[in-house]
User: Fold NAD(P)-dependent alcohol dehydrogenase from Phenylobacterium deserti.
Amino acid sequence: MISALGYASKNAHSHLHRWEFERDDPKANEVVIDVLFCGVCHSDIHQVKNEWGNSVYPCLPGHEIVGRVSRIGAQVSRYKEGDLVGVGCMIDSCRQCDACRSGEQNYCQGPNSWLATYNGPMKPAKEAGQNMYGRDNTFGGYSNVVVVPEDFVLRIPEGLDPAAAAPILCAGVTTFSPMRHWEVKAGDKVGVVGLGGLGHMALKLAKALGAKVTVFTSTKEKIKEAKTLGADEAYLEDDEKALEPLEASFDFIISTIPQKHDVNPFIALLKHDRTLAIVGALEEMKGVNNMDTAMLRRSVAGSLIGSIDETQEVLDFCAQHQVAPEIEIIDIKDINDAMKKVEKGEVRFRYVIDMATLS
Amino acid sequence: MISALGYASKNAHSHLHRWEFERDDPKANEVVIDVLFCGVCHSDIHQVKNEWGNSVYPCLPGHEIVGRVSRIGAQVSRYKEGDLVGVGCMIDSCRQCDACRSGEQNYCQGPNSWLATYNGPMKPAKEAGQNMYGRDNTFGGYSNVVVVPEDFVLRIPEGLDPAAAAPILCAGVTTFSPMRHWEVKAGDKVGVVGLGGLGHMALKLAKALGAKVTVFTSTKEKIKEAKTLGADEAYLEDDEKALEPLEASFDFIISTIPQKHDVNPFIALLKHDRTLAIVGALEEMKGVNNMDTAMLRRSVAGSLIGSIDETQEVLDFCAQHQVAPEIEIIDIKDINDAMKKVEKGEVRFRYVIDMATLS
Assistant:
């Protein structure tokens, strides 16, 4: 066993507290990683507070992990001690279903779906009737050490700042994957709804792909910030006058708002046959008006993080195009305050915990 | 001018009444058609009652029209007197936008969108600020004669019963077009939600395409009727026990329910990366749970009727595969009763007005 230290919550109403626990020794295919940095994702808050109803406790969040390999299992071939590596939202999948075999582990249809970096299998035993992973809970990156199968470990390319690389592992790939899937290309007009952790990455990645990017935000100050970050245009979400002339002009729109919201005003902005992808909210949305979708055969889709290959691709893409999240490095003792600020939309744009502050 | 006779309503609260009116003489590119049969579509009721808020009065419905050419304009080349022809939901479009030029007139993005067979331009002048068609209202097929540009006239192939051909012009193409667009093929598992005018055509067409078809209905008696019509399986929509094992097994689902409803139970039945198309309801739907869409990158789309080419294709396809709507021929004097029965879901499965009863 490996002695580990982290910050976890005991239940849905508890703050995160320092917690000593143990991790299993690495199996032959696993890598032990000393955590250097971990991003604070809005979904960490949803799960700490059990807002999706699927949380298991203790809940030790964190799935934007950057660290150094400190030990490897006997059969590990891709990583060696000292390598700078990353871990995102998944640490295992069934490896046998169609999705896994085609390299889309994030859509694993095994009995328990994929194994989340924290909070256990996506389909827990009580729902699936079995548990192929042999554990109901997993503990994430708000800790000093993680143990992960090498197939789910990413390489942090040279040229990426290790702290700034962390949010790419969730916020980056979550926005990059749908832009790849719906084939965003140079010259396309892309809309980004919401300018938080995910939204600001969507903006930067779409710009790096050569798209013209329009940001829609609920926060007046973020209009200017969007433009500073590279947006071609930025509007308040409810500015009907500004939105009207944009009708039917977008090739792709990504909604990154992390809770229930109304996508109807943005559906009207899509061209014929185009898609609005919702990546921020995993809950029931406001109803879509099918007059707007049907009139131009538009689609509203969901998209969930990205595959391991896509995660490596977006890391490499960010290094190549000098794309980096806007981060603020925090002490882990300030995590509860930081979470409150994330909820209030006060972070600019991602908190990253410096794990050296955990001791 | 051509003296015409039809059944129209004066306002949203009026029944349909016999109405004498005049149609313009045919322009050089137009065809005069003596109406033989006209189908009764649920959307006729929505528009007579102004349930979509876009009705203009008098409202003379009918967009599933079969008739004989009685006269042609000087430049008409594709049709001659005596031809058996059909007219669907559209009688003109801008002919200049990208959609029109690619043959998808049903997604016309001209200033007024397409010109509906009745109820005028899809985007009326009060919304568009102009009217390229020069008329705010049009009068449909619940009448003895229509005048239509030849490009929007369909050929009724030999081997199709003229009365049964009528519903193919809306119910047929509305369900066929999305099955073509989302590439339904032999062996696919297709779900049909709702077994009315559209639903029973979706079932027959999907079967003719070689798919395995499951029908979901709210009406117990329709379980048996679905199987009689060729469904491989049929379930009550709210039979959770029956639906659970079907999770993530469908290649395509089409929802034909003509009013606001909940598609969440059916989204869960879609495979990874597949689409549920809503064709029956043109209004705000119940909210979609993005947990279900995101988990397998599923899409919810709208689809609106079909193009002129697709309408001809589905007519020819029906003749070739011996697909015919289940119809009940009615006297036009019974139209108000018939509409009530359509609203109550009592029709099996499409009323078709015999226009010889209009005199």
Observations:
- The radius of gyration of chain B is 20 Å.
- Chain B has two domains: 2-161+324-358, 172-302.
